[in-house]
Amino acid sequence: MDxxxxxxxxxxxxxxxLAALPIFALPLAILVLPRPFAGIGARVSGWIDxxxxxxxxxxxxxxLILIFAQLAVVIMRYAFSLSFTWLNEIVMYAFAAMFMxxxxxxxxxxxxxxxxxxxxxxxxxxxxxxxxxxxxxxxxPICVRILTTGEQGLARAWFLFEGSRxxxxxxxxxxxxxxxxxxxxxxxxQGLSQAVKAARRLTGDLPDDATKGEIGGSNGA
Amino acid sequence: MELxxxxxxxxxxxxxxxxxxxxxxxLTLGGVALLFGLIGIATGMFPEPVLRSLPSRIQxxxxxxxxxxxxxxxxxxxxxxxxxxxxxxxLLHIASRxxxxxxxGLGYAVVxxxxxxxxxxxxVGATVITMTLIALPTxxxxxxxxxxxxxxxxxxxxxxxxxxxxxxxxxxxxxxxNAASQASLRTGGGSAVVSVxxxxxxxxxxxLLLVLLYxxxxxxxxxxxxxxxxxxxxxxxxxxxxxxxxxxFGLGAPILLIIAVLGAILGGVxxxxxxxxxxxxGAILLAGLRLASSVQxxxxxxxxxxFVALLLIIxxxxxxxxxxxxxxxxLFGIVLVALAALVFAASLVCGLLVxxxxxxxxxxxxxxxxxxxxxxxxxxxxxxxxxxxxxFGGDELVAQILSAVPGGKWGALIMTxxxxxxxxxxxxxxxxxxxxxxxxxxxxxxxGFDPVWLAILMALNLQTSFLTPPFGFALFYLRGxxxxxxxxxxxxxxxxxxxxxxxxxxxxxxxxxxxxxxLPSLSAS
Lengths: 221, 525
Known about the structure:
The complex is a heterodimer. Chain A is an all-alpha fold. In chain A, about 75% of the residues lie in helices and about 0% in strands. In chain A, helix 2 (about 25-30) runs parallel beside helix 7 (about 175-200), helix 5 (about 125-150) runs antiparallel to helix 7 and helix 6 (about 150-160) runs antiparallel to helix 7. By secondary structure, chain B is mostly helical. Helix content of chain B is about 75%, strand content about 0%. Chain B has 24 helices and no strands. Chain B has helices spanning about 1-20, 25-40, 50, 55-60, 70-85, 85-100, 105-120, 125-140, 145-160, 165-185, 195-225, 245-265, 270-290, 300-320, 330-355, 360-390, 395-405, 410-425, 430-435, 435-445, 450-465, 475-480, 490-510, 515-525. The interface between A and B is large, with 69 and 86 residues.
C-alpha cells in the first residue's frame, strides 16, 4: 500500500476524533438533564466497558506471550548460548503491550492506587464529584496531550514502516509506537465511561457501590 | 529563577493536597504536573519543548523499552498465581501446624512464611491480607495476645519489601541506578551502575537479620510472658496429621522455587528478568500440580513432567558442550535438550489448562495485568511529574535544600529519611521510588554515600513507615480484614515493639554499612 495513504487515513482519524469531542460533555449533560441523557450514557459506558474488556483480553494474551517468550530466551541462552534479537523484541513488545493495553481495564476495575486516608470521610457524593474532577482535570488533559504531541513521530513511523534497529529484529517498531496513542485513546474512552458512571451515581440513576475500593481493593489485593 | 522555584514548591504542595482527594495517584501526579506545565508555558516560565518529549519518553528506554523492569510483570504473575492457586495459603497452614506445638510457634510460622511470600509478591496489601485471613483467627483461637498476633502479622507482611526478590527492590534499583549515573556524570567519574542483582544481594543480610530479630522478639515474649503465646493444646490438635507428601509438596516445593530464583540471581547464573521468567513458569507448574487433584484433572503427571524436563536441561547443559554439533554426543545432547524444552512448554500449557479448569486462569492473569498496569501507570505519571518539576529547576532546589541542612551529609541523610518516612504515611513504596528517589538520590550520592547502602536504608525506612500508627499501610489493611473484636488500639500497640526492632536495624545498618555493601562487592569481583 502507498505510504501516503496512511497520512490521509490518519487525517481522517483526526477529524473523526474532533467530531467525537462533544461526547465528552455527556457526563455533564447527565448532571443537568438526567432524563434523556442518563439512558444514553448507560449505553455508551456499556460499550466502552466492553471495548476495554477486549483490550484486557489482549493484555492477558500479552502476559502469556511474555512468559513463554522470556522462557524461550532463557533456554536458548542457557543451553545453546544463542540469542536472537527478534525473540528479545517479542519479550519487550509483550511487556509493553501488557500495561499499555491493560491500564484502561485497571481504571474500570478500580485497581489503580488511591490515597485512602481522607477518602472514606468524603461520603459518596463527595467521592463522585472528586471522580469527575479528577477525570476532567487530570485524566483527559494527560491523554489529549499524549495524543496530540505524538502525532508527528507516529506519522513518520508509519510512513517508513519503521522496523527494528537491528537486522535480525522484528519489522514492527511502528506498531510498538502505536501502543502509545492506543493507550491514550483507551484511557480517554474509559475515563468517559467512569465519568458517566459517576454522574449517574450523583443523579441517583446508578446505585452506589460504597464498599468497593475503600480498603484493600485499591492495591489489586 | 526565584519565581520558578516558587512554581516548583507550589506544584509539590498542590500535588500533596490533590493526592489527599483520593483520585488515582498516578493520574493525580501527572495531571497536576501537566496543569502547572501549561500555566508555566502560558506565562513564559517553562520551556515548551520539554513537554513535547512526553510520548517519546513513554516509548523510550525508561518505560516501554526498560529492560530492567521486564522482571516486574513476571514476578507479579508468579506471586499472583501462587496466591490464587492456594500454594501460598498451604505454605502458611503447613508451617503453622508444624510449629504450632512450640511456644510461640504460630508466630514463628507467620514470620517465616511472611519472609518467603514476601519474596514472591512484594506488595504489602496482598501479603498482609492473606496472612491476616489465614493466621489471625488461628492465633486468637490458640489464645495469643491480640497485640502480639496483629503486630507479628503486620510486621511480617511488610517483610516483602526488603527481602529479595521483591518488586519494589527492582524498581528501586532502576531509580537508584539512574541517580548514580547522573551523579557520576556530575563529577565526571566512572559510571557507577547499580544492578538489580546488587540491590538484591545488599538487601539479603539486613532482611535476614530483621527476620531473626522478629523471631528473637517472639522467643523473648514467650519466655517472659508465656501466657501471651501459648502452645497448641493437645485436645485442639485432633486434626489429621500431616502426611510427608503434604509437607514435601506444600512446604518444600514453593521454598525450593523461591530459593532457585533467588539463587540464580545472586549466583550470577541468570539476570533478574530470566530468573523471574523461571519463577513464573515454576509457579504455573506448581499451581497446576496443586489444583489438579481438586478439579480431578488427569494432566497432573504431564505438569510434573515439566520439572523433570527442566532438570534434564540443566544436567545435559552442565555435562555437554551444546553450542555446536561438533561430535555425536553433543548432537545427541542438542536433540535431547530440544525435546526437553518442548516437553517443558507442553507441561506449562497443561498447567495453564488445569488453572483454567479450576476457574483461576482468567482471574489470576487479570489481577496480574491490573497490578502491572497500576505500577507502570504510576511510572508514566511520575515521569511526567519529574519532567515538569525539573523544568522548573526543582531538582536543583532539592539539591540546594539538602546541602543547606545543618549537620553536613549526615544531616541531609537524616532529613531525607524523615521526609520519606512521613510521605510513607500516604504514598505507597512505588510512588515514592518513582517520584522522590530520583530527586534526592543524586545529591546524596554526590555527598559520598554508597548507592546500594542508601537504597537499603530507604527501603528499611519506608518499611518502618508502613508499620507506624496511625497511618501505616500495613495496619490499615490489617484493620480492614481483622475480626471486629480486635481493638484498633491493640493493633497500634502491637506494632510498637516491631517498630523499635526496625529502628534498631536501621541504626545497625548505618553503623555497619558493610552489612549492605559486602555481598554486592563479592558478586562484583
